[in-house]
């Protein structure tokens, strides 16, 4: 399945296959998202999910409160629906 990812407020759009991480899909399509380690350790890519659903193969190091607030790691997250994300607080 392929999902549409929108980055707010710039409205940059790209697609993500269900078998690839959000970050890898962005890089593959020439969309530059902030990242450093690609394994969720550096927290450079952390962003807020405004809308949608993701899953992880390994749960990231986020507190329950951070998860409830919508924070995700695109380097580790797999889209399970269309997503709207923001890198702004």
Strand residue percentage:
25-35%
Number of strand elements: 7
Please tell me the total number of domains: 1
The quaternary organization reads as single chain
Low-confidence stretches: none
Q: With helices defined by DSSP (H or I, 4 residues minimum), what is the helix count?
A: 2
**Average pLDDT score:** 94
CATH superfamily: Beta-grasp domain
CATH architecture: Roll
Largest sheet: 5 strands, mixed
Considering DSSP H and I runs of 4 or more, what fraction of the residues is helical?
10-25%
Biggest sheet, spatial arrangement of strands: 2-1-7-3-5
Shape: globular
The span between the termini is: 30 Å
Structural class: alpha+beta
The CATH class name reads: Alpha Beta
- Whole-angstrom Rg: 12 Å
Return the CATH topology. Ubiquitin-like (UB roll)
Q: Please trace the helix and strand order, writing H or E for each element.
A: EEHEEHEEE
Q: How would you sum up this structure, described in words?
A:
- By secondary structure, the chain is of the alpha+beta class.
- The chain has one domain: Ubiquitin-like (UB roll).
- The chain is 13% helix and 34% strand.
- It contains 2 helices and 7 strands.
- The strands form 2 sheets. Strands 2-1-7-3-5 form a 5-stranded mixed sheet.
- The N and C termini lie far apart (30 Å).
